[in-house]
Write a structure and sequence with these properties.
The chain is of the alpha+beta class. It is built from four helices and seven strands.
Length: 134
């Protein structure tokens, strides 16, 4: 039937019993598949991660300034990666870094949720905060 119509016999669902086939123009079929894949890719949500850097001795004003930036980022729908960077011998103050990040997460509780607790990786202690769903 496909040969008589001048078209191709295309197997649509090979894993189904019985297999599903259509009589279509194969070039047009491939074009439409690529078009659908491109649309799906365009609709996929792109995750944006914004970084906020602290030192172990960050003062209250700087903390509030960075907190306000984080609130803005979370309201835009971006994730926020907050980290404390320890330089030289500051690595002794790991507890201060943990306290700072936990305080940061608790201040942002109504805007986002912490995905993980603070983790120390080398000279960086970091945590990720994801925005709350609306």
């Amino acid at each position: 039937m496909a040969h008589e119509a001048g078209l191709d016999l295309v197997e649509i669902a090979p894993n189904v019993d019985p297999p599903v086939c259509k009589i279509v123009d194969y070039g047009k079929f491939l074009y439409e598949q690529k078009k659908k894949a491109k649309e799906m890719k365009a609709k996929a949500a792109k995750v944006v991660i914004k970084d906020i850097r602290f030192g172990p001795h960050t003062d209250e004003h700087d903390f509030n300034f960075k907190k306000n930036h984080a609130i803005k980022f979370l309201q835009e729908g971006s994730k926020v990666k907050a980290y404390v960077f320890f330089r030289g011998r500051e690595i002794v103050f790991k507890e201060q870094g943990t306290i700072l990040l936990l305080k940061f997460a608790s201040e942002l509780e109504e805007y986002g949720k912490a995905e993980q607790l603070p983790i120390l990786e080398g000279k960086k202690m970091q945590m990720v905060i994801a925005p709350k769903k609306k």
